[in-house]
Amino acid sequence: MNADKAKVRQVLDGVKASGRNALTAPEGKLVCDAYGIAVPQEGVATGAAEASKLAGTMGFPVVMKVVSPDILHKTEAGGVVVGVNSADEAAAAYHQIVANAKKYDAHASILGVQVQQMLKGGQEVIIGAMTDGSFGKLVAFGMGGVLVEVLKDITFRLAPATREDAASMLDSIQAAEMLKGVRGGKAVNRSALQDLIVRVSQLVSDFPEIAEMDLNPVFASEDGAIAADVRIVVNFEPKAPRYRPDEKDVVTAMNRIMRPKAVAVIGASSEAGKIGNSVMKNLINGGYQGKIYPIHPKDAEILGYKAYKSVKDVPDEIDTAVFAIPGKLVAGALRECGEKKIAGAILIPSGFAETGNMEGQEELQRIGREYNIRLMGPNIYGFYYTPSNLCATFCTAYDYKGSTALSSQSGGIGMAIIGYSRSAKMGVSAIVGLGNKSDIDEDDLLLFFDQDENTKVIAQHCEDLKDGRAFAEVAKRVSKNKPVIMLKAGRTAMGAAAASSHTGALAGNDKIYDDVLRQSGVVRARSLRQLLDFARGVPILPTPKGENVVIITGAGGSGVLLSDACVDNGLKLLKPMPQDLDAAFRKFIPPFGAAGNPVDITGGEPPITYMNTVRLGLEDDRIHALILGYWHTIVTPPMVFARNMVQVVEEMKAKGKVKPVVASLAGDVEVEEAAQYLYEHGIPAYAYSTEIPVEILGAKYQWARAAGLL
Amino acid sequence: MNADKAKVRQVLDGVKASGRNALTAPEGKLVCDAYGIAVPQEGVATGAAEASKLAGTMGFPVVMKVVSPDILHKTEAGGVVVGVNSADEAAAAYHQIVANAKKYDAHASILGVQVQQMLKGGQEVIIGAMTDGSFGKLVAFGMGGVLVEVLKDITFRLAPATREDAASMLDSIQAAEMLKGVRGGKAVNRSALQDLIVRVSQLVSDFPEIAEMDLNPVFASEDGAIAADVRIVVNFEPKAPRYRPDEKDVVTAMNRIMRPKAVAVIGASSEAGKIGNSVMKNLINGGYQGKIYPIHPKDAEILGYKAYKSVKDVPDEIDTAVFAIPGKLVAGALRECGEKKIAGAILIPSGFAETGNMEGQEELQRIGREYNIRLMGPNIYGFYYTPSNLCATFCTAYDYKGSTALSSQSGGIGMAIIGYSRSAKMGVSAIVGLGNKSDIDEDDLLLFFDQDENTKVIAQHCEDLKDGRAFAEVAKRVSKNKPVIMLKAGRTAMGAAAASSHTGALAGNDKIYDDVLRQSGVVRARSLRQLLDFARGVPILPTPKGENVVIITGAGGSGVLLSDACVDNGLKLLKPMPQDLDAAFRKFIPPFGAAGNPVDITGGEPPITYMNTVRLGLEDDRIHALILGYWHTIVTPPMVFARNMVQVVEEMKAKGKVKPVVASLAGDVEVEEAAQYLYEHGIPAYAYSTEIPVEILGAKYQWARAAGLL
């Protein structure tokens, strides 16, 4: 991109020198010109011939306005002529304006006549940029006028934005259709709009002191896009960037923390009911195979393990220290951990930022930075990492190993994760409490789980992102490899207010989170249950190879609801069904079974009908994913259906036909056992729900599309 | 409302006589004038003085146009003058137009000059009316231009609409804010718009032959609302109205069917596995106390009951006949039931409309009508009515009696209802299969359950409403007494296509269903699980007395998600919390607990903190509903929390303080038992979900508002 950075620097220096925080219109034009941002051409003529010439170079029509410090109401003074269409008209207009102005005020100082390119309608849009506390520079695009004001029809991306980002912005607004031409209007020049978005986003990225920028309105037409008005606000005292350790160091430290050779428990206790006792028991009973060092001021032995007065007294290296002591003792013990070169401190104790004790938390951060020790928490339940059989927490031990890594900002949500995981037999690789996030946060976890061969899906609950930009940058890379799912709480204004009183964090504008998370390839869960259902189902589904989804159902009624759910979740039903495929399905189903998609095999069919149709669905390469609707009958009982489906899926897998399959089971309580059996054999299945299995398939698709796999 | 019906009749007769299906512009104006629908005033002047006078009566400015059959391009001929502002200008314009026209074409026949009221901008809106296959006459309102074209920002109501309906339409569109004035504009005259909507809706109701009507655009301003263009399409062959029995007869027949003194099983069988055997067993084992008459061509006794060859051979009166015979035998047996004066035939057999056999189904309808016997089905699983201990179905018997009456159009969904009901211990009064709905449909059930003292909530699944208008009219009355909840499948275009191939029903435009169901006070469930959760939770919640909701939570993280859910479900958190109330809550919670709403009691608190805060929430009359967020800890285990909450709620109930309370439980698997205990004691509670309990409370509120109880 051609950009005259020196020119912009010069303008900004001038603004800074004059102590202003906003640019004048001419300064704004200079900046736009330097970055190739189209604004109306303009100039001042001091004679009729010059006016004609100026107008000729910028192209007709033009608008002409008197330039006089003494005339405030130009129109009233007869000092404005619009729609000047030729060189002759320009000359005539010059004379007329000067004459009118003199007549209006004989003593007025007339400096000349401004000639400005006249914008020809088109579609009014808005392009802007802003600085977000968490995400930094953002570029915005929306429709002008009431659509942005009343309907808040606007979309955001991290700046700088690529042309692809810009294209996605044009498609993301509600009124996207308008850019394609409505009521016989012509489509706008998309390329010109993309260009403008990219340039604005580059400008604010190159010059962080540009805090806000508004091109409003931009007139977009089939010919191009021109900003009719430019507003630039600057801030020469931008906040210091947040400290970010080197990514390699993050991974090294996280590996030591999550797969430690030795763990110290600071505040270990022999007394049942104490947190330091629960942590010791969980480490031992969880099956952790490394060394365990209880730390206690007096006791010589705790639960059969030799205890030490300080980590510094332990003869071996220690990787992870779990803190189970009162908050006021943490800083001292943390310093000792630093001196001992421990990689990570798991700070269970509370009494820091969440109670208003900011100083206490900042002290811990300073010590952590000084000794290069990473801090998890404070104010957390600890963490589980199942491949190490590590339960570094006071909560009860996990039951099901698996491939989903979960984390939560809130302890309560963490407990819900643990309970659901056990109840729904969701296999987890890790559950991590982040609490006050004084140091380790979501992007540190992403970096670790990205390279963790035991983790296939990363699912996170958060209330705020302390450094949204760092998260987005890491998530964009990681989500190319593994699905990243997020439940962002404080979605609504009301929720955000609660978040703010809970963690002291300023919850961001949810629309920004929504757009940036999507830009980063993150799948957003809309509710706690959805986070949990996604975390459970997405990792066991194979990645689809295409968009064609087919519903095969024994219950016509489920077929309708499953179709609804497909639309709700952005899935595309293969429609119309190719004739030969339709005919092939028809061979297996009764003559009154419904054609097309859903394939309605009808209610009273034996297991073989389900098997034949599902086998065909898996075999034919034009079909990329299956949604099954089961109806409980005496002819095909739930467990018979479940076993048969698993058999067909495995039979086809052996032939290299691997596709995502989800199932909705309608029937009496026996369908619950069948749903669990299907899940345990790679088919996310739910009883009494047509929507949840489709939501899970939708999440897998959303991820695969964002990762460029479709 | 003043309306000149005779005038409209005269115009429509003229249109009919001339064999047209649309009205001309002057005809449209006559119709509008007859119903007081404001259109621009206009008249033709044949002299300058007359032009001045005409213009004066309609008010300035006016537009003047030449009237000549010979001049097609009026503007080109200089035959149009806009913005005529005074009587003098009108006279001058008259002369000028005539002169220009003569100059343009000396031979043109000039009939005069049309003087038309000139509309002064304002907001462009659309008001229309249409005829829907299921709902009949509907009135529509939307914003004009791109908002309706691109964003489909339009809303519908049944016609005729009341002024209150019309007011709700103005508030229902996405861009409602625009009517209140944006960008410094003035608010439109709401009363004038309401008036226009009411008049249009009355017109199409009075004259069913008006199939469509469009006022587009209507210019709405602070002064009033005038339709700039009117289009009326007529259809003189409207379809015959659907047969509707008298409501008293419906209730009488339904009472005989649901609470029969005697039931016949046509096709009863001793052979296990046969439908006629399952039905007999379910009647017997379900505990039905009336008489059971098996009907069988040969057997003398079935399962210990004397069998008859025909219902006509049974000596006593029979109320309900359950059919378990092949489809082709149904018509003959139904005729015998008719002769026996049986009230209702439960038509389990399939092979009718759902397989394309329309004639077969129509034959049953004819017989039903002839003998005044009501038909349930065909193609159904039958029904349960628990107060009669009646399982007139081949499905397994129910487990939990209660106060929710459910129905489903689809058999598969019916099975899901039965399974969920058993699994979640949802108490039901009835589960009814409606299948092909050849006769008995949703509004028949509403009429019965409305007067059924055993039913508190009615929850229905449907794919189409055969007679949406009848349903809406009944639902509007019934929903004033009892919540009516509906899962309308085929919501989306894709789902609707599936519905159509499934039942042969033309699924309506979902937006119409959405608006009309709301207008009728029906709460719409968005998914199968939501239908089931609402059916389970809504009946046990007391009706709130006001809008002020308070969240009391032990988990701050749950508080944020619960707040999000409140916004999503239209609940209003009491904010700001009155100072004295805030202070009163603070007395019970640690100093770092969060102020306001949510009341964050913090995580480590003992049971007494939950009890004190919840007691206060129930006691204070400024609070109308409570949402509890529980966090599983050792200090307050799940069942301790559950028992304590029930104790406080019952203690306060004894003092007359009855409020809806729902709970979200975050914790390990023990919270599931606690959730069930809470539900069984009147508190809908869910483990691992912050959204479901709030959705249930939201449904109760939505109903209470629509029923005028808030």
From TrEMBL, chains A, B:
Record flagged with keyword Kinase: no
Keyword Nucleotide-binding: yes
Record GO terms (molecular function): acetate-CoA ligase (ADP-forming) activity; ATP binding; metal ion binding
Domain ATP-grasp per the UniProt entry, residue ranges: 29-65
Keywords: ATP-binding, Nucleotide-binding
Domain of life: Bacteria
InterPro entries registered for this protein in UniProt: ATP-grasp, ATP_grasp_subdomain_1, CoA-bd, Ligase_CoA_dom, NAD(P)-bd_dom_sf, Succ_CoA_lig_flav_dom, Succinyl-CoA_synth-like
A Pfam family assignment: ATP-grasp_5
Family as reported in the entry's similarity comment: In the N-terminal section; belongs to the acetate CoA ligase alpha subunit family.
The name this protein goes by in its record: CoA-binding protein
Organism: Ramlibacter tataouinensis
